[in-house]
Amino acid sequence: MNHELNSMTFIATEGIRLWHTAFDAINDAIAILDHEGRILKYNSSFGDLIAKNAEEIIGNFCHRLVHQTESFIENCPVTRARTSLQRETLEMKFLGKWFRVMAHPIFDKAGKVIGFVHVMSDISATKRAKEMLIERERDLSAVVDNLPGLVSRVDRDLRYRFASKGYERVFGFRPQDVIGRTMAEIIGPETFKQIEAYAHRALAGEQVTFESPIKKPTGEMEYGLVSFVPDAYADGTIQGFLILAMDITARKQAEEALRKQSEFLAVLLETIPRPIYYKDAAGKYMGCNKAFEEFVGRSRVEIIGKTVYALATPERADQLHQMDLELLAAPGKQTYERQVEGRSGELRHVIFNKATILHHDRIEGIIGVISDITARRRSEEEREKLREQLHQAQKIESIGRLAGGVAHDFNNKLGVIIGHAEIMQEVMGPADPLRPHLLEIIKSARRSAELTRQLLAFARKQTISPKVLDLNELISGMLSMLRRLIGEDIELAWHPGAGLWPVRMDPTQIDQILANLAVNARDAITGVGHLTIRTENRVVVDERRPHSEFVPGEYVLLSVSDTGCGMSAESLERLFEPFYTTKEVGKGTGLGLATVYGIVKQNDGFIHVQSQAGKGTVFSIYLPRVAVENPVRAVPATTAKPTGGSETILLVEDEDPILELSMTILTRYGYTVLAAKSPEEALAISESNQGPLHLLITDVILPQMNGRDLQELIKSRYPEIRTLFMSGYTADVIARHGVLDDGVDFLEKPFSIHALTAKVREVLEKSD
């Protein structure tokens, strides 16, 4: 029995020792308290935590050591456990750490609280992890809830297990109202049908991304970029998928706006009449508009991917490519003018306006706009030609005014010289030693008179008597004279056109034209050569005008061509200038072609010259057709001697020398001459005259009264009297007095004895 007692004592003793060892080994701070909360016993962890000696701990109230405040005693777990008779816990911060404090009541056999077990477990690490988890969840929620799109998770039944706040913005559902509901309920059955296939693919483990329209409760349509990402367990089993949806409404709207803008720009590009193209940095065409296709004469398929070398000659392509390289080397804008081939191969004047295409500061290529200025250039050239023509006309007008200003007096003086010299010639014997000198005087005077006529012809103030002519018949009658003029070494070929239309001109002007052109051809031909004269009918239309100044219409073309030395470009430009000549000094006056030009213009015609150095010259003269069926037949010039008569002539001339000369000539040829120096004197003579008056010869321009008015007064007294007008003034001055009208007889000063006597007989013998 003693043995058993000793064994039980040993066991009890060892048990207590083991309990104390285990009690001290526990990491939690444990204290045994009496029913009032005083510390009866504590383990090592408690002592280490309180950091006081045993005398300070044992018997001290736990709340004073742990909570360190009397006011906290009401919330102390011990106080609450005393009341609740059950275990109470709380979390508190002590000495910078977080603890879970537990108070467990100790009951006696009667169920009375006799003490408490007070346990303090260090939960700082758990607290920190929990706080971090809460912070992380808060951060994640902040990110997810503030995303512009939607984030959610659904299970295999397509029920929501999580939803971000975006669902409230888009669908009007709070996140807590979404969870547990199906996708079809939230997004609507119509939208769900469109994306259901994607959901099943995600449940099969495939990540899918697609665009989907989203109809909001307000009826407004949005667009989302949606991704279904499979959600799997660690073993790979798919438990559902995550839904990530980004609002791309703004992007879709921008894309739609960009599409509409692109369509608008495409339409605008096609409707712009100017050719537009764009190339890449390598020089290949990447696009163009319809106008560019039409300009180059190629389809877009033939242009895209090609370079300028496929559209232009190598030389021009090199030039254009070099300009592209310069623009690419110095990005910006570039403008220049060039000539390029158009769709039919014709050269066009164009302006290139180009600019580099940049994308993120990187050169993508070049865009170019072509402005066709061919019409403008032609217009400028036409304006320049018109300026030249105006300048030429002004020079002509100046010379005309000069010629007109001296013509009257000069012709009167020449008339006196020629008349008296011819009278001397008639009375001077053939063997008279002075006869050669007299003939030279007459010759020089006639040349001077011809020079005056040339000046007036050039200035278009030559006195003319236009008639309806058959050019073929007139030119045929001149061939013998022209052959003598050009000499035997030059062959003259005449090709008259069939059915030639009539023209209205003074026949003497045709003589002047052909004589001047024949002499010009003779001087241009060295040795043997050819001179060819042609006529033909020609209709000039807008599309076939030899020169811009030509007026469309029906013309008779008189063409004179030679095989001479031709002319340089400079000579062609100045060809019709008065006094311009390439001949040696003394070999030409420079008025021959100017005279031709003036005559053609005076008759509303046009002249076009083609010539090249060493290849001859062609003069093409266009004379307007007249609608008259019976042209005047050419009458060969007569060389018969002057004849006289016995009629009475009233001669009115305000220049004494001309009056005396005319009276002398007419008297020598048998006429009775009544001379008057003024209209008043002429009227007085007509009133006092007792005999007949057969002919009135009067100057056109007289003091106090012109010749036409004088004729009317004389004719009232002598109804049968005939009238011959004469003048040395220019045609424009005479025409104002009606003297150049059809049926009016006129004699131009200066005149020879033959011209005067022949004209007098013609007028006197003319039948009414």
The CATH architecture of the largest domain is 2-Layer Sandwich
- The structural domain count equals 5
The proportion of strand residues reads: 25-35%
**Low-confidence segments:** 634-639, 735-740
Quick one: how many beta strands? 27
Ends distance: 201 Å
The number of distinct helices, counting runs of at least 4 residues, comes to 26
Radius of gyration: 64 Å
The shape is: rod-shaped
Regarding quaternary structure, how should these chains be classified?
single chain
- Average pLDDT metric: 81
What is the percent of helical residues?
Answer: 40-55%
Would you tell me the structural class of the helices and strands? Answer: alpha+beta
Strand adjacency order, main sheet: 2-1-5-4-3
CATH fold-level assignment of the largest domain: Heat Shock Protein 90
Going by CATH, what is the homologous superfamily of the largest domain? Answer: Histidine kinase-like ATPase, C-terminal domain
By CATH reckoning, the class of the largest domain would read Alpha Beta
Describe the 3D structure.
The chain is an alpha+beta fold and 768 residues long. It folds into 5 domains: 116 residues, PAS domain (Beta-Lactamase, 2-Layer Sandwich), CATH 3.30.450.20; 107 residues, 2-Layer Sandwich (Beta-Lactamase); 101 residues, Beta-Lactamase (2-Layer Sandwich); 161 residues, Heat Shock Protein 90 (2-Layer Sandwich); 118 residues, Response regulator (Rossmann fold, 3-Layer(aba) Sandwich). It is 43% helix and 25% strand. The protein is built from 26 helices and 27 strands. The strands form 6 sheets. Strands 2-1-5-4-3 form a 5-stranded antiparallel β-sheet, sandwiched between helices. Helix 15 packs antiparallel against helix 16. The radius of gyration is 64 Å and the shape is rod-shaped. About 2% of the residues have low confidence.
